Fold each of these.
Amino acid sequence: MALATRQLRAAHWSRFIDAMFLFIWMVFWVVGEVFAIVLVVLMIASALSAALGRPPLLASWVPPTDGSVTVFLFFLLLWLTLWTFAGIAAGSQLLRRLSGEDDIDVSSNGISLTWRAGPIRRTREISRASIHRIRLQSKDDTVVADTDSGTVMISDLGDVEERRALQAWLSSQLGLASEDHAQLREQRPTERDIETQGTEIIVTHPTRSIRAARARVMLFVAVLMSLGWLDALRRGVMNATTGEAVAALATLLVAASSLWFMSARAEWALRQGRMSVRRRVAHWTWRERDFQSSSTIELEHHQDSDGDDRYALVVRDSSQRRVLDRALHDQYELLALGEWLSARTGFPFKR
């Protein structure tokens, strides 16, 4: 049961300017999305007709002259995927600019968040024990919670004064130290697999689940591309057209890439006085750099040409330097990760 509740809503007239540009962009997005989907359907129908030898009705719009149509289909599917995710993100932001509401409930167990953007509603619970501190991000004064599992956005609505008041209220309700006096606690790497092998801690990126998902996507694309050259098997390989040969080669490359996505990863091997940064494929290591006890972990900062703050967590010794992770605008997670790595290697952490 909530002990106290606060609500922030989309405010300030400038949000309508943002919404206007987002709306215009969404109009073009809808046109591009519909056109791409229709084209993908026609191309799949064309490729299917080439494989079966019996063109369906839609295939007459895109003549199945040879298997090269599936090569273009691969690039179109890649573009459509990126375009779709961009549209979903822009549409959600448009709704939040116009009618967004954030409900923040505080109880003895922690924080309960409800984010609304028009008909879209998302909720999240944050355990009190996992919260390190409540703060405002330096770039846009978004209220965030630094937790054991990473930085969680609480609200970016309302005006600056409302968000500052929310940050102070949450810190008071949860009995947290102010941002200036909060102790930085080490934080295990997020979105990475961590396992112990003997005396070493192995940190892997990307995780097994992410690698498996990428491999499945590439195999699905390879199946679609195979439609462009299956008919050549029925007619005889020697009778294959140039387009079908290109489609067969591209299919093999895409299928092989699924194996790469499944097995390729970056690893950190940690133990006291040593860190190995390496690249691995299956059981083979094809690049490795060792850092000994004289090494240091450092947080680097620079501003790009747009004035954006960019941070890099690096490990270095007298002869080499390797970037471990990067962040844009917000350095907190890199600081917490640096503390975690320093505790397990004994390397000094220079902020």
Amino acid sequence: MNLFTKYFSVLCLAALGLLAACEKQEYQSVEALDNQNIEAYIQANNLTVEPLGNTGMYYQVLQEGTGAELQYTSKYPIVYTVKSLDGTYAVTDTFASTNRYMDYLAYFLGESTQGSSYANIPSYQSLFEKDEGLKYAIRTVLQKANGQIRVIVPSRLLSYGRNGNSDLGIPSNASMDYVIRVLDSASLPGYEDENIRKRMEALKLNLADYEKTESGIYYHISEPGDGDTITVDSTLTIAYAGSLLNGSSFDQSDSATFVLSNLIPSWKEILPKLHKGGSVRFFTPSSQAYGASGGSSIPPFSPLDFEITVRKEED
């Protein structure tokens, strides 16, 4: 055997070995990777969860629902948190718009693309038509409103799937851990009142200094004012600051002029308790502010914190 033949034989054997190695290499499926990540997460965090049939999801009912049976065709106020199993992505501020939902249960995905505004867009319709994911877990396991559930969702059931979402900071193959509270309209006032009181306590405000109206507003007049009487028809120049219950400001001004009758119900109820030159702080439930749906910069069913001083300018 000449040198060339020997060299060619070695190359052939090497190529055959490499081919055999390639044939033996196994690629992990998305399902297998999801299952591996979820099982490791459950074990590492000592979670008490159960598999939801063959869906790949795991659940734990944290608070049994006490309200009416949940229906896809009904609207519910929903508050939720979500984090990826590796901890690189977490959205946990329940007062932020990303964590509050007020719409049909059928359109709830627990992601930024959800709700009625997307329901008629062809590229999203298939997502809403699937009876799977969070809405399926909520309806079949939680079953009733006014309850809370934890759901671990494999990446393959989420819209960003295997690729993740770099714009949101969601890594690839990111399965998610959700904690979801589903309310109903009847329980919403009590839920908001509880959150207002917690916020006041966190601010170390003396609750005894605040009066509560029949509509659920907590207010404290620090300066009653000695100018003209304020009525619902008054035109007012005011300094004000408005905040969500997480402390983030959504609006403020050192000098703004408004006709009081054009403003939200809580302003029309509280400001006539002052004279011009007066100052007040009040916490209002959403029913006396921007309602269950919220506004452009106000998340759904948001209680609000206002600090207002009315100037003495004449009407």
